[in-house]
Amino acid sequence: MIVPSSYPVQGIMFMMGHPQLITNLICPIIWTILWAIAATIFGFAYLLHKQANALISVNCPAGVAWFVSVLFVLLEIALLVLVFYLIILPIYQDALFDRVLKLRGLRHVLDKREGNDVIKCLRGVHGGLLIVFIQILVLIVTLPLNLIPILGQILYAMINGWLLTFGVRFHYDVEICNKTVSQSRKEAWQRRSEFSGFGSVAVGLEMIPLANLLFMWTNIVGAALWVADEIERDERKQSQR
Fold this sequence. Notes:
Blueprint: H1 7-17, H2 20-23, H3 26-57, H4 62-103, H5 107-111, H6 117-142, H7 151-176, H8 181-190, H9 192-206, H10 212-240
């Protein structure tokens, strides 16, 4: 049985069991770590005091103001890291996705790619850039939802989770299955419950400071494992006919 929400955790376990996947990610991980350090310094050295003083100036108790400001800064740091990740991700994402499929013994799926490579490349670049822009925009717009205890955070994870899942599976849809951007989006919406299930867990992992530097990549591995299980399920059905 395929349970989409389990794959982000499966991605962590799979990457730990296949350290060769990590070696290809040393460069982007180093850049992301440097950015995270810079974002953390900026957050606590500048944003924390600004936000706490702003709350105190409107008669918020000092203790509450500082506590809330720390929470805000942690969320802002996570958001800054996520935005950087969304920008750098497409350069390495597709190669990691394909390597997981190969490790699962599905090289033949990659070898059977159909369609014009140039058209698929242009379609993938155009669609990928659009998805990244929308993800960043939605991340910023939905950030205030985190101010609503529990319910707001669930909504934040579900909304951004659906988009995240659409983004990490987009390469498979467009460049391997030769679907159009419209077809990929339509399928993502029809399967929104599955996509949000995977994405909610993935977003939750990516909101954990420092650990998200790894989880951003394990989520891609998890998505590839999900696709691999679907491919194998479909191949079993075809062989039984």
